[in-house]
Amino acid sequence: MENLSLFQRLMNYLLGTDRKMFQEVNIDREVVDEILQIARNSYPKEFVAMLQGKVKDNVLLIDGLLFLPGETSDQGAVMNLFMMPLIDEGIGSVHSHPGYNANPSGADLHFFSKNGLFHMIIAQPYTLDSINAYNSFGERVDFKVI
Ligand SMILES: [Zn+2]
Question: Of 3.40.190.170, 3.40.50.300, 3.40.50.620, 3.40.140.10, which CATH number belongs to 22-145?
C-alpha cells in the first residue's frame, strides 16, 4: 500500500477496490489437497465450490472451500453457481472439468467476469499441475501453494 501513488489511492478509494487488490496468490496446501481429492472423487461429474480467503498486504490468501448444495452435476457445475451470487466471504470459485482441458469455457468466462476475484479450473489427471487459475478477466494468474 505504501508504494501506491496518491492518485491510485484516491481511485481505489473511489472505486472501492482497495480491499480487493492483490499481486500475489497463496493457497493453503490443505485446500489444494482437498480440491484434488474432490475432483477425483467427483469424476466423471464436475464439482464446484467457492473459495474463501482474504486480501492482506496485496496478497490474496485462499484458506477454505465452501460447498453449495448439489455441487456435482452432469450439466456443468458452473450452472449451479450462476443461480446464486457469491456470498461475501466467497472470493472466487473452483470447478473441475472432465477431460484434460483446464481452459475456461464461454460460460466460465462469463461467470468469472461477474463473480469474485480469483478462479481455478482443475482438469484431469487432477494434479497440482493440471490446475489453471484465472482472474475475473479470464487471464492466467500464478499462485503459490503454502
Ligand atoms: Zn468450466
Answer: 3.40.140.10
